[in-house]
Amino acid sequence: MSANETALAYAALILADAEVEISSEKLVTLVEAANIPIEGIWADIFSKALEGKNIKDLLVNFSASAAPAAAGAAGAAGAAAGEAAAEEAEEEAKEESDDDMGFGLFD
């Protein structure tokens, strides 16, 4: 993330915390007050992207808004983790069986 994007994100958070409507003019004002040069187009893009959204709700309830997409990903990740754990258990069992055969490291 560039310094401009970071500055705009923080400016948007400041405006949301102050319960002030997020507009490109206000974003530019805050970013310029921080002595960060920025092109107005980026403030326009940020303000349009955040238009009608409550940033506080997005931060607090981010999992609820992405639940349908995340549910599928979480299910796939859970299955992959389960398979990885099963493979690891098999490897450990194989290593233990080598020790039982008298091929230990310090024998």
What report would you give on this structure?
One of its GO terms (molecular function) is ribonucleoprotein complex binding. Belongs to the eukaryotic ribosomal protein P1/P2 family. Pfam families: Ribosomal_60s. The chain is an all-alpha fold and 107 residues long. 75% of the residues lie in helices and 0% in strands. The protein contains 6 helices and no strands. The longest helix is centred in the last third of the chain and has 34 residues. The protein is elongated and about 75 Å long. It starts with a helix and ends in a 7-residue tail after the last helix. The mean pLDDT is 73.
Write the layout of secondary structure elements.
Elements: H1 3-17, H2 24-33, H3 40-50, H4 55-60, H5 62-65, H6 67-100
Summed up:
This protein has 107 residues and is an all-alpha fold.
**Class by SSE composition:** mainly alpha
Silhouette: elongated
Biggest pleated sheet: none
Number of helices: 6
Order of helices and strands: HHHHHH
Overall average residue pLDDT: 73
In total, the number of strands is 0
Low-confidence stretches: none
The gyration radius over C-alpha positions equals 26 Å
Tell me roughly what share of residues is in helical segments.
Answer: over 70%
What is the straight-line distance between the termini? 55 Å
Strand content: under 5%
What are the key terms here?
single chain, elongated, P1/P2_N_sf, Ribosomal_P1/P2, ribonucleoprotein complex binding, about 75% helix, mainly alpha
